[in-house]
Q: What sequence folds into this?
């Protein structure tokens, strides 16, 4: 697996949609809380299942 520290700054600075990629990676690493008993995180569900998530103060996301 390649980490953010392994990628050169030159490539990261030119990466399209980096903020989106960073957010998805962060969510997958820390926030994907689903288990076999179907306990789900409502924020995760609104972002990636229902696709209705709107961060505070941002109408364009």
A:
């Amino acid at each position: 697996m390649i980490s953010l520290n392994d990628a050169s700054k030159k490539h990261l600075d030119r990466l399209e949609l980096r903020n989106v990629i960073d957010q998805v990676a962060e969510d997958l690493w820390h926030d994907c809380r689903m288990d076999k008993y179907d306990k789900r995180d409502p924020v995760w569900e609104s972002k990636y299942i229902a696709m209705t998530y709107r961060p505070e103060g941002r109408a364009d996301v």
